[in-house]
Write a structure and sequence with these properties.
This protein is of the alpha/beta class. Strands 3, 4, 5, 6, 7, 14 and 15 form a seven-stranded mixed sheet that branches. Helix 6 links the parallel strand 11 (214-219) and strand 12 (233-241). Helix 1 (42-49) crosses helix 10, helix 2 (119-141) packs across helix 3 and helix 2 crosses helix 8 (274-287). The protein is globular. It has two domains: 2-113 and 293-324, Quinone Oxidoreductase, Chain A, domain 1 (Alpha-Beta Complex), CATH 3.90.180; 127-266, 3-Layer(aba) Sandwich (Rossmann fold), CATH 3.40.50.720. It has ten helices and 15 strands.
Length: 328
C-alpha cells in the first residue's frame, strides 16, 4: 500500500482526494519508481478541480512531474537505485502520474537526474522551469542575444514566468515582467526583472500593430496578451508561446507576421524529443542556483495538494509548488 491523490469520476460525480492505494491502480510500464517529490502545476490543478477536461482516463493519479529512485526496470535502461525524473508524456492525464508515493512508467519517458540537482531541486524546477528553458532555447536559435533588446515575459508570477525571468537575467538579457500582481514587484526584481508592467496593458483588445519594443517574448498567457505581445515585437523578432492562462483563443491579425516578419514559436514540453529534454535539463542544472530555487519554490505535503490546487487556479500562488509525497 502507498498513498496518493486519486481522481475519480462516476455516477457520484467528479472528485479528488488523498487515498491509500495499491499496485492495482498503477498502469502498464516497464519501470517502477519510488517517488520522492512531485509538483503542482496549472494543468494538475485543472485536473484535480475538474475545471477543464484534462484527465482522459479514470481513476487517475495526477502529477505531470516526478523525481525519484528506480525500484525495478524491465527494459534494462536503468538499474535499481538510479535517480530519474519525468516531465509530460501524458502522465497525470492518460497515465497515472507523480502525486503518489509510487509510479509505474515507461523507461523511454525518463531521463537521469542531472548532476548537481537533488530530486527536490529538480521538482522545484519541474515542467515550469523546463518549459521556460525550452522557450529561452527557441529565442537563442532565432539569434536573439542580450544585445538584441528587451525580452517580455508574461504571466511573470507563475512558474514558467518566474523561471524565464531568472534564466534570461542570468544569461545577461534585459527582462520586462508583465504581471497582474504589482505588489510582487520586489520578488520579480529579485529574480532579475529590470522593469515591471501591469498585465492589463496587454490583456485587453489592442491594435493590430503597436510600437516596436520587444526583441523576444516568452508568453504563458495566450489570448489578447499573446496578440498584443506579437503586435509590439520588433521586426524579425520571435514570440515563444507555451501557455493559455488567459485563454486558448488567438484574436489577432496576420499584420505582425507579414509586415514585421516576426515568428510565433509554439513550445510543447509534453512530447519533446529526448535530445531536447537532456539539453534543457543540463542547462538548467548549470544556470539555476539554489538561492533562485528557494526564491521560486514552496514545499507542501501530499495532504495539502487538493486545497492548494484551487488556490493556484485563483491566482493566489506565487512561483512553484513542490510536493513532498512522503510528507502528509
Amino acid at each position: 500500500m502507498f498513498k496518493g491523490v486519486l481522481i475519480e469520476k462516476d455516477e457520484s460525480g467528479y472528485r479528488a482526494a488523498l487515498k491509500d492505494l495499491d499496485d492495482a491502480v498503477l498502469m502498464d510500464g516497464d519501470t517502477l519508481i519510488k517517488v520522492a517529490y512531485s509538483t503542482l502545476n496549472y494543468k494538475d490543478a485543472l485536473a484535480i478541480t475538474g475545471k477543464s477536461p484534462v484527465v482522459r482516463k479514470f481513476p487517475m493519479i495526477p502529477g505531470i512531474d516526478l523525481a525519484g529512485t528506480v525500484i525495478s526496470c524491465a527494459s534494462g535502461k536503468f538499474t535499481p537505485g538510479d535517480e530519474v525524473l519525468l516531465n509530460g508524456f501524458g502522465v497525470g492525464e492518460a497515465h497515472c502520474g507523480g502525486l503518489a508515493q509510487q509510479a509505474q512508467l515507461n523507461s523511454d519517458w525518463l531521463i537521469a537526474l542531472p548532476k548537481g540537482l537533488s530530486a527536490k531541486q529538480a521538482m522545484a524546477i519541474g515542467t515550469a522551469g523546463y518549459t521556460a528553458m525550452l522557450c529561452v532555447m527557441a529565442l537563442e536559435k532565432h539569434s536573439v542575444v542580450p544585445d538584441s533588446g528587451e525580452i517580455l515575459v508574461t504571466g511573470a508570477n507563475g512558474g514558467v514566468g518566474s523561471y524565464a525571468i531568472a534564466i534570461l537575467a542570468k544569461l545577461g538579457y534585459s527582462v520586462v515582467a508583465a504581471t497582474g500582481r504589482i505588489e510582487e514587484a520586489e520578488y520579480l526584481k529579485a529574480l532579475g526583472a529590470s522593469e515591471i508592467i501591469d498585465r492589463h496593458t496587454l490583456s485587453e483588445p489592442g491594435r493590430p500593430l503597436a510600437k516596436e519594443r520587444w526583441a523576444g517574448v516568452i508568453d504563458s498567457v495566450g489570448s489578447h496578451t499573446l496578440v498584443n505581445a506579437c503586435a509590439s515585437t520588433k521586426y524579425g523578432g520571435i514570440v515563444a508561446a507555451c501557455g493559455l492562462a488567459q485563454g486558448m483563443d488567438l484574436p489577432g491579425t496576420v499584420a505582425p507576421f507579414i509586415l514585421r516578419g516576426i515568428t510565433l514559436a509554439g513550445i510543447d514540453s509534453v512530447m519533446r524529443p529526448l535530445k531536447d529534454r537532456v539539453e534543457a535539463w543540463a542547462r538548467l542544472a548549470k544556470v539555476l542556483d539554489s538561492n533562485t530555487l528557494q526564491q521560486v519554490a514552496t514545499e507542501i505535503g501530499l495532504a495539502q495538494v487538493c486545497d492548494t490546487a484551487q488556490l493556484l487556479l485563483d491566482g493566489q500562488v506565487r512561483g512553484r509548488i513542490v510536493v513532498n509525497v512522503n510528507q502528509l
